[in-house]
Design a protein that fits this description.
A hairpin with a 4-residue loop joins strand 6 (267-271) and strand 7. The longest helix is centred in the last third of the chain and has 161 residues, at 308-468. The protein starts with a helix and ends with a helix. The protein folds into 4 domains: 1-201, no CATH class; 206-306, Pleckstrin-homology domain (PH domain)/Phosphotyrosine-binding domain (PTB) (PH-domain like); 308-403; 408-448. With 579 residues, it is an alpha+beta fold. Helices cover 67% and strands 8% of the residues. It is flat, with a radius of gyration of 55 Å. A 7-stranded antiparallel β-sheet has the order 4-3-2-1-7-6-5, covered by helices on one side. Its main location: membrane.
Amino acid sequence: MVGLKDELLKSIWHAFTALDLDRSGKVLSHNLCTVLNVPHDPVALEEHFRDDDEGPVSNQGYMPYLNKFILEKVQGNFDKVEFNRMCWTLCAKKNLSKGPLLISDEDAFKVWVIFNFLSEDKYPLIIVPEEIEYLLKKLTEAMGAGWQQEQFDHYKIALNTSREGLSAWELIDLIGSGRFSKGMDRQTVSMAVNEVFNELILDVLKQGYMLKKGHKRKNWTERWFVLKPNIISYYVSEDLKDKKGDIILDGNCCVEALPDKDGKKCLFLIKCLDKSFEISASDKKKKQEWIQAIQTTVNLLRAGSPPPHKEARQKRKELRQKLLAEQEELERQMKELQTANENKQKELENVRKQLEAAAARAAEEEKKRLQTQVELQDRFSLELEREKMVRQKMEEQVAQKSSELEQYLQRVRELEEMYKQLQEALEDEKQARQDEETVRKLQARLLEEESAKRAELEKWHLQQQQTIQMTEAEKQELENQRMIKEQALQAAMHQLEQLELERKEALEQYEEVKKKLETAANNTKSWKDKVAHHEGLIRLIEPGSKNPHLITNWGPAAFTEAELEQRQKSWKGKKATSE
């Protein structure tokens, strides 16, 4: 309500300053109560405007009455245009220029209302050059003409040299003179003023003719649509006399394009909570402009933001306040600097006088100082020569120490590199030994499986010999069993051959691992020699000694002699059992 009160006060101020309150104060108050829909208080009105020392020209004044009995009771349910027109009527006759203007009285009234919207919040009311430029740009854009920035800059310079801004009546004269609308006729200027008035004062974000589909008869009717921050109203025509309905907008509304249907093109849909509205624009450009304008309005409602032109006005005002504060701060700093400069000038004057006195004293002491200077110069020359010799010796020692330090650091880096390479060689040797152990375990498993297969074959061979010694009566039956066992024997032989192949592959893997181990051992021995050559700073960790390997018919064995003897005893025991 504070913002509404400020807007009302600007219009009332014009009427207030144009009237003689001793004669017309009651009339102004009565008219304000009427247009603002505020209940009349005849008792308070007569009490305030009685002809004694407490009247409107007393210390009590008119503004306290206006605030207490009128403005504080305003609820916002009044016609702003009618309110402004009432205030305009009271002040226009006295202040409006009598000379010929390019705009009509109605257009002058709209310019006056726009002035109240854009003027500064201080009295007497003026509009600053930045807001004048904004308004003239809007009017030029509405007229479809090009903005003449250079011409306005000259006007702005001339204006700033004489005053801070223009009054409402000076602004009307400026626009009515056609200075910034040359070549435009009266009707074009009037249409531009009306368009800017609708946008800034009536909050009309967009308006135009479109077709609307009915909800009952489903017919299409042309309507004049007016988009405002929270509502879309549609009328029979653009004179706004016959209103047909409203589309209430809120944060839950949405708008989306529709495909052409029923012979209608450029369709879009406005969805609200209670119902939806199908609308057809005149062309694709208008359709896109309306969709974008409605969606922007819904987004502002969701965010709780004011209309774009009000938000832009507030930002321009905040920017001007910020620039003014910075300018005032700069002026304050300049004054402080000027004061400090004056103080410095005084200090410099005192210092100059002191220097003159010191110069007089220095002239007297100059002769003594010259003699002392010669003596000191000779002494300093000798000391300087000695210092140069000492410095030269120290530089030679520093260079020698730097060279030794560089050699030592180089040697340390070489040893660190050798240590890293030795670590890598040891890792390779360790990996080779692990691979060798894996191959040994695999070879042992294959030998165990081979021995088990051989024991089974010997057992089957003994069973065949026993079968041959049986009687002829059992020979036919045994022959069948022998054939079955022969097939099993062949399968076992095939498995034995397969195991033989696997053993050979394991032996080849073992040979490869052995070669890797020998390579790693050679690398270790090579690095050991290098490390021993560098004064033995690093000691190698060598692997322990290994027992000699056993050699079987199929290659190196993966077990010791004791394990071999144990396995031979096991085989003999199995053979004796089978016999």
